Amino acid sequence: MEIDIKVDRFLLLSTAILLKILEIHFSAERQTWAGPIRKSKNWLTDVIHEGKPSIYGKDLMAWAEKFVGDNVWI
Fold first, then answer.
1. Fewest Cβ atoms closer than 10 Å to its Cβ: which of 4, 43, 47, 68?
2. Measured on CA atoms in the order 24, 17, 65, 72, is the torsion positive or negative?
3. What local confidence, expressed as pLDDT, does residue 11 receive?
4. What is the pLDDT of residue 56?
5. What is the dihedral sign for C-alpha 54, 57, 59, 63?
6. Which residues, including other chains, have CB under 8 Å from residue 15's CB and lie 6 or more apart?
7. What are phi and psi of 70, to 5 degrees?
8. CB of 60 closer than 8 Å to CB of 16
């Protein structure tokens, strides 16, 4: 993973994947999880804005969306 700021990469990646799982697989229940994850989503948004993280040259959130779509079945 490439990123321009110092951050826990595991925490960053796991947060991105978890948020994509919620958005993709639980979008109909958004009202139940949107509030509790707000702090994590704000942190992730700030890190993305400041650090521009990428994996294999692909934007982190685009990579996470493809990863979840290809690998997570619920």
1. 4
2. negative
3. 97
4. 94
5. negative
6. 40, 43, 44
7. -85, -25
8. yes
pLDDT of residue 62: 97
Alpha-helical (H) ranges within the chain are 9-25, 30-33, 38-51, 60-71
Q: Decide if 21 contacts 6 (C-beta within 8 A).
A: no
Give the C-alpha separation, 2 to 58, whole Å. Answer: 10
16 within 8 A of 67, measured Cβ to Cβ: no
Tell me, what's the pLDDT at 48?
Answer: 96
What share of the chain in percent tops pLDDT 70?
A: 100
Average of pLDDT values for 6-20? 97
